[in-house]
Structure formats: structure tokens, C-alpha cells
Design goal:
By secondary structure, the protein is mainly β. The protein has strands at 12-13, 20-30, 33-40, 48-54. Strands 1-2-3-4 form a four-stranded antiparallel beta sheet, with no helix packed on it.
Length: 114
């Protein structure tokens, strides 16, 4: 039998008492910024506060971009075309002359007693 999972809802704790806070109102200020009004769930505390939720970076570009929204990329190399594979960036080592090397000699043990 498959267990049904409820979606996980992110939560913010009250900065004063640490109890769970509940979003009571939300307002979209700009396309990338939203303000949320939260109330502490502890009736003895009663704190009400405002948080700002902001979109700060693009991880994967949109297939339908909004020309008025300008966000930096999380990694500028994500969308940049590469002319060669990433592992070709290292130069060839100076001692790699394609000739077989003789096995290295092991440490010599000298007998001092002669």
C-alpha cells in the first residue's frame, strides 16, 4: 500500500517565542518581490510581522521570458556555449612525451656491518 504524502509547507518561526507563524496576507509588490504578513500561532505572544520574499537569481532560463524582469544567473556558465569539452582545458604535462618509462628503482638497503 502506497502512503500518501501531503505537500510540505515552508514555515517561519516567530522571532520572539519560536512558535509557528501563519501567513495571513500576501501582496505582490513587483514581479520579483512579495510581502507577507504573518501572525504568531501562540495566542500568549500575538506577534504580527512582515517578511519580504524576493526572487534573487535564475537557475534555468524561462522558455517564455518577461522582458521587464532582469535577473542574474546563478552560474554564468550555465548558458554560455563552450567551444570544447571542459576536460580539455588542462595543458599536457611537460613530462608526458608518450614514451614508456623504466620502472622506478626501489629504495636500496645498505648493510653497514659489511
Amino acid at each position: 500500500m502506497k502512503k500518501t504524502q501531503r505537500p510540505r509547507i515552508p514555515s517561519i518561526s516567530c522571532p520572539h517565542c519560536g512558535a509557528r507563524s501563519i501567513v495571513r496576507h500576501s501582496e505582490q509588490v513587483t514581479p520579483i518581490y512579495r510581502e507577507l504578513r504573518l501572525n504568531c500561532d501562540d495566542d500568549r505572544c500575538g506577534h504580527t510581522f512582515l517578511i519580504g520574499l524576493s526572487i534573487i537569481r535564475t537557475i534555468r532560463p524561462s522558455a517564455r521570458p518577461n522582458p521587464t524582469v532582469q535577473l542574474p544567473f546563478a552560474n554564468p556558465n550555465l548558458c554560455a556555449p563552450r567551444s570544447r569539452p571542459a576536460n580539455d582545458d588542462a595543458p599536457t604535462p611537460a613530462n608526458d612525451d608518450d614514451q614508456p618509462r623504466a620502472p622506478a628503482a626501489g629504495p636500496s638497503i645498505m648493510n653497514e656491518s659489511g
